[in-house]
Amino acid sequence: MRRYGRTLAAAALTATVVAGTAGWASGTAQRAVTGPPPGSAAWRADTSLGRPLPDPATASPGQVAAFFRQLTVRQKDSLARHHPLVVGNLDGVPVTLRYAANARAIRAEHSPRHERLAAPGRHILAFDPRGRGQVAEVYGDLETARHVSVVVPGADIDAATFDRAKDPYGTPAGMAASLRNATGDRTAVVAWTGYTTPVGVGLDAATGDLAEAGAGRLVRFTRGLAAVGAHEPVLFCHSYGSVVCGLAAHQVNASDIVVFGSPGMRAGDVAGLRTGARVWAAKDESDWISKVPNVEFAGLGHGADPAGSGFGARRVPASLAQGHTGYFAPGTDSLRAFAAIAQGRAMDQAMDQAMDQGRAKAQDRATARNLATAEGRTERTVR
Asked: Do 282 and 321 meet the contact criterion of CB atoms below 8 Å apart?
């Protein structure tokens, strides 16, 4: 009975403090945006090609890709003009056609909330204005890059906060840009806000309902990348996004799954994820997510700590990361390790180098703190 009480108390605490990027805010219940893209009814009714168009609700990304390969340039452009929201969000559609369709869809919204997404040079791979809005943006050349990564964010991220200037490394756009820069622009990185994220702290963040919906969308998205010839991606999953990745792990198309600032992956260990992908985990000591109990009880909480020794994930150094949103900050050991994983190169050596760098800088910081303390004591003695 005492053990039951402790577990119940831990689960209650989880419901109070689990969150994503924003920290200690009150939660607001969200309804997941799922199903085919907006405009699908008009798309199904379109007979302009003299044959049915692939049903967005049932056609696989591979079937979509095969259909578009049969079309002329003129036919593709016509579909993108008449059905931009479907073409722009349908996994399996050629990448450049999705960019053009989404630019058109964003301009058609006439919304100050979204207009920045249509700026020249941006490669918007998905744009869904329903709910709080979902968006995916590509950094680099997705079609030719030898290495591809996908950033899966945590709570409080939507079309409006996807690329906010405040706290840039806590946003998928900021993480993606930082990762690509750390690889010397030798990768393509997708900032993917393709699911309805929790808002603040509340039951949405403590339960797996939104993550379940997001997992299905992530699986389809990665299969869509494969359908258009993109390389198998590395997933970088932040905070509640790691719950999404955990639930998607057994079906997702990915070479590696990297979680950081994670409250859990809804699995007891790596074996429980049922994935052939390599699993990595990072957690900074200053990250407030450490205060979240790693339990799962009556649907609350997300289970074992992926960065814990018993989980079985490969540990990523993160001694220089600052707080919950500092893992991609320039100069951190975590970013250096992430860049190595993203490029699939000399991982063990890269990890060792990142750890050595982290230990050296951490020692420098400790030395500086001790020096400051000593100087303070000397000053008080003089006084």
From this structure: yes
